[in-house]
Amino acid sequence: MTAPTAPNDGLISPDLPVLTRKDFVTDQEVRWCPGCGDYSILAQMQKMLPELGIARENIVFISGIGCSSRFPYYVNTYGFHSIHGRAPTIATGLKTARPELTVFVITGDGDGLSIGGNHLLHAMRRNIDLNIVLFNNRIYGLTKGQYSPTSEFGKITKSSPYGTTERPLNPIRIALAAGATFVARSVDRDTKHLEEMLYRAAKHRGVSFVEVYQNCNIFNDGAFAAFAEKEVRAERMIYLEHGKPLRFGKNNEHGIRLNGFTPEIVENAESDEGLLVHDAHAENITLANILVGMDYPEFPVPIGVFRDVDAPTFDQLVQQQVDEAIAKGRGSLEEALRAGETWVVE
User: Fold this and answer.
1) Which residues contact 144 (CB under 8 A, 6 or more apart)?
2) Which fold has domain 9-223+312-337?
3) In principle, which of 10, 34, 135, 223 could form an S-S bond with 16, CB 3.0–4.6 Å?
4) Residue ranges of domains in the chain
5) pLDDT tens string for the chain (346 positions)?
């Protein structure tokens, strides 16, 4: 368990000292490979956290196993470096017992979607007020380059020398299917957008899921370069904005329309008429699933908020039941043991 190296006494109040990024930097040596995309995610998280106006001792980072899971050591808050794939489970217990805390789950495509897939799925299904950030580099980096659940079909790695024979999982599609109430995607190289997605996720009441395309420059370098590099980003990525038509290009000259349930590119669209308008607040996930199916090179890659809806949270509902039970007064353990169906074994 890691703790703030110099905690202050402030809670969520007007008296909270003004915090800066430096307040969320620890004295630990950051040990990722030089050039790793994790550095960018860490930097944007540390820049975003002061904007929440929350005391450091009321923020917790919980991780599993993997390169991403070093995260709690590098953020000057409370944290827990847990076991492989189980970060959502530990975070669920913490948030249920201490609902006033702001809890982040840091995971990767291997940790979260392989051994931890079941735990991740149910955390999203329950709509626990957690902020889940999944680093997706489409490879196992910490264990030196085996294919992961998100590796593309046919990818040659140390564990698939003839190419993978498995279809990759799509993290956004899984989050939508599980009923996550906030679902977004960003990329490590677009730092301004990444900081915005992390902030909006943290402000959301309920489970938030942010997939971050993260470059592993040692074992899967350039996995997203074809569309994420600054020089080509405008033409090959599309930024989702609620209530606005889907446009992309250096001058937003191209658009996306639907032909039935099939997206089509409209080149040099002179007007917005007929273009698909993004609705992040739709309860129905059909539109979001259509967008998830868009990928380069056939389409520009969508990033931004796919879904943002309100729903009661698991921790709220549990607390309501606890309050109702307490309101009934103190009970008797003896009566509880003998109540309902009982059996006499002879």
Assistant:
1) 158, 219
2) Rossmann fold (3.40.50)
3) 10
4) 9-223+312-337
5) 455 544 333 344 566 789 999 999 999 999 999 999 999 999 999 999 999 999 999 999 999 999 999 999 999 999 999 999 999 999 999 999 999 999 999 999 999 999 999 999 999 999 999 999 999 999 999 999 999 999 999 999 999 999 999 999 999 999 999 999 999 999 999 999 999 999 999 999 999 999 999 999 999 999 999 999 999 999 999 999 999 999 999 999 999 999 999 999 999 999 999 999 999 999 999 999 999 999 999 999 999 999 999 999 999 999 999 999 899 888 888 888 888 887 788 8
